[in-house]
Amino acid sequence: MSRETVTSGTEWEAHVGYSRAVAVDGQVHVSGTTPVDEDGEVVGDGPYEQTKAALDIVAGALDDAGASVADVVRTRMYVTDIDDYEAVGRAHGEVFADVRPASTMVEVSRLVDEDFCVEVEATAVVSD
Question: What is the pTM of this model?
């Protein structure tokens, strides 16, 4: 079994014990990703902007693991207000319109920072 971890270098990865992404035998699993910049500051004022920012981070993690957005087969979006589904879905659709992965969006009571309105996970399968 081959296993590679991708780190973003944040303090939380070591503290909590996770990786930004893990590549195992042709699959890449990207951890829940929130819209933050390299200083840990929230990016985006609303659900659309935050989703775009989180998906940019997801795309970077995929690239670091040798995959791309085109390889994504599954996404999960956690939103703090399901009424934001249209804005979150629009951002998701702009990134995955041609890929069309299996996807889930669910409302959660809160995320780790009260300013976050979305968190995104992704799974990719890289063909040989």
Answer: 0.94
